[in-house]
Design goal:
The complex is a heterotrimer of chains A (90), B (120) and C (149). In chain A, 27% of the residues are buried. Chain A contains 5 helices and no strands. The longest helix of chain A has 21 residues. Chain A is flat and about 60 Å long. Chain B has 120 residues and is mainly α. Chain B is built from 5 helices and no strands. Chain B is elongated, with a radius of gyration of 20 Å. The chains are: A mainly alpha (90), B mainly alpha (120), C mainly alpha (149). The interface between A and B is large, with 49 and 48 residues.
Chain lengths: 90, 120, 149
């Protein structure tokens, strides 16, 4: 059983490595994640939000909807945990 | 082929960590060890994502004095996405631990083959 | 159930350190604009200070400081602050969660946006703190029925 699992893991690792051939190199400033909307966030963060920390201004102002969804996720996880582990009072 | 092996060695490290977590999730029989494997897998994903946004000669994504040029600062977008992913990992681990407690109370064991045998 | 730790050193050091940990957590939340930090990080540190209180003094003795009833109110309050600010921005003429239209008496629009960001970080911090403590209390006060006392 464990030999079979080891073969599946090695096969998945090999497929992932074969797909890494076209990924950008280490520290490339012209890689696709840094090209389209990210320079606009970096250049306009002081004149639109007056916040020097770019991570906070992107998290709370430019992508505020995703942070609302994430707060709902952690609230739902807390409620689920409390529901599962409740003591039944007779 | 050889320059692909040498120049992109960082991807080998991430894939090795991911496959460690993946083997622990599938190959181990104890339920707690599977949960630890899931945690290792998610941490390897965070490392992979954040290392994509590194720029050569860039610094922290906090604005310094002077004009803002995009080549001076590290890409802040993967940091933001991974903050959300860390919160999702904590939520999943919390609910999974609560379910494991209920399973232990019901079956008195955490081994997968004993649980499956007592439900048949 | 967590019982009191029978050691004088742990209790004394916890009694001294817990207010400083809480002040540091409030510093991390408030300085999210100028240094790494923000709502989630400060909320987790604030929750960790209360978990240290429960671990050092037992769940019975810290019942009057934090109980599960107060924690559920605090968690709902955190989420309410977040969506409440978005709703105020909607009522005063803009889009949902568009902080430029909040009715604050400040001079320029970027400063109003910075205050909107601070408001939602406070809401997120309160919510995350309450959830962390309530997950911890729920998991540790669960009797599995098979453990030897």
């Amino acid at each position: 059983m464990k030999i079979f699992v080891l073969l599946v893991v090695l096969l998945t690792g090999g497929l992932l490595l074969a797909g890494m051939e076209e990924m950008p190199g280490w520290g490339d400033p012209s890689s696709p994640p840094s090209m389209h909307v990210s320079p606009r966030y970096i250049e306009k963060t002081m004149e639109e939000t007056a916040t020097p920390n770019m991570v906070t201004s992107v998290l709370a102002d430019y992508r505020g909807y995703d942070t609302l969804g994430e707060t709902t996720v952690i609230f739902a996880a807390g409620v689920a945990c409390l529901l599962l582990l409740r003591k039944d009072d007779p | 082929m050889l320059d692909y092996l040498v120049s992109k060695y960082n991807y080998w490290i991430y894939i090795f960590l991911m496959m460690l977590g993946f083997y622990a999730m599938m190959g181990k029989r104890n339920l707690m060890k599977k949960l630890i494997g899931m945690s290792i897998f998610q941490t390897a994903i965070f490392l992979f994502f954040i290392s994509i946004g590194v720029k050569k000669g860039g610094t922290l994504p906090i604005m310094m004095e002077g004009a803002a040029r995009a080549a001076d600062y590290v890409n802040p977008l993967p940091h933001v996405l991974m903050l959300t992913a860390i919160v999702v990992m904590v939520s999943t681990t919390g609910v999974a631990l609560a379910v494991l407690l209920l399973i232990y109370r019901r079956y008195k064991t955490l081994e997968e083959n004993e649980i499956l045998r007592s439900t048949r | 159930m967590i019982v009191q730790y029978e050691n004088v050193i742990i209790k004394t050091i916890s009694r001294i350190l817990i207010p400083f940990i809480q002040i540091y957590a409030l510093y991390v939340i408030m300085h999210g604009h100028y240094s790494p930090g923000g709502g989630f990080q400060g909320g987790v540190i604030l929750g960790a200070s209360f978990i240290l209180l429960v671990m050092a003094f037992g769940a019975e003795a810290s019942q009057k400081r934090i109980s599960l009833k107060k924690l559920t109110v605090l968690a709902s309050l955190g989420l309410l602050i977040y969506s409440g600010i978005g709703l105020v921005a909607l009522l005063w003429g803009g889009n949902y969660l568009d902080y430029g239209n909040l009715p604050l008496p400040l001079a320029t629009v970027p400063e109003i946006r910075a205050m909107g960001i601070l408001g939602i970080e406070i809401g997120v911090g309160i919510g995350v703190m309450a959830i962390m403590i309530s997950i911890f209390l729920a998991i540790t006060s669960f009797e599995t029925g098979g453990e030897n006392a």
